Amino acid sequence: MSKAEALAAIYEEYYQISESILDSFPKYRLPLDLFVLNEEVAQLLTYYRKSQRLSNEQVEEVHRLCAEGNLFVSRRDHPIYSQHIVKQLDLVLVDRNLKEKEIADICIRAFDLRLEEFFAQPVRPLFNQLISDLQVVTEYIWADLHRLRLFTNRLHKGDYSLARHSINVFSIGLWLYVYPANAGLRRREFDQAARGLLLHDVGMSKVPAFILNKTTPLKPEEKEKIPPHTLNGYKILHKLDEEGHDLVRQAALEHHERLDGSGYPQHSTTISSFGRLTAVADAFSAMLQKRVYAEAKEAVAAAKELTEAKTRFDLSFSGKLLAALVNDSFGKVK
Ligand SMILES: [Fe+2]
Ligand SMILES: [Fe+2]
Question: Which fold has domain 132-326?
């Protein structure tokens, strides 16, 4: 094997670790092994094993090796590395080693974690944490809108959870928002659309967990607890979200309104464009996940059903979704 081949093999199996990532780990006891590259002989030597404690001199040396670009971690430690980044999501923006698919997985896991926490307790510190992760993700997608495909390719199907449903609505809705006429798209609106989609169901956090998690059909008195979630969601967001943007309000308040007035809470027939978009993303996501009252549906069948319900759902959005699924262009933004 030539030296170049040996180096290429090393880069397949190991990541070069950046200084900002190194700094984010505990100083003396790192949760993963470290390796040093000897470029002369194209070999990696083990420098540190995860159970050890580094001395002060070693801490300095590790930083020097890292600054020189000679410090590596093994892809075998990817679960530890990615779990670490899930909790410090801003690191994905400076990481040079993760593949796009790995970044999308990490972003989705971070959303899942932050949403579960926030829905369990919708208070300001958890809201701020969620929003700061959301800003990282929108920053990442905004830099290349084609990255939306990574998210629409990772829709949660199967068992329902409010967090997983919210992530689906974020991915589907943001794609509908961006595609196809994205020429005049502005960052502020894009961010607010993302926020509205991810948090459209925040009012569901006020519905008792035993109702949300029931595995048998809801009784009439339990069903009554669901519709107020739109207004409650709006109130929660109004309190926590100082910016109070129109798109966030429309997503929370209008996602259950229907064109023929059969929706709730207003039974309105004049629904904002973003409210209609969120309704399509929401209903589509709901059909993909298994519920007590319905089996999970396959994506094309779900989109088709929405286009057939054109008296209730805006065909300009459901039609776009169906066409993209049929042409396998869902997630592509051009
Ligand atoms: Fe809802
Ligand atoms: Fe929803």
Answer: Hypothetical protein af1432 (1.10.3210)
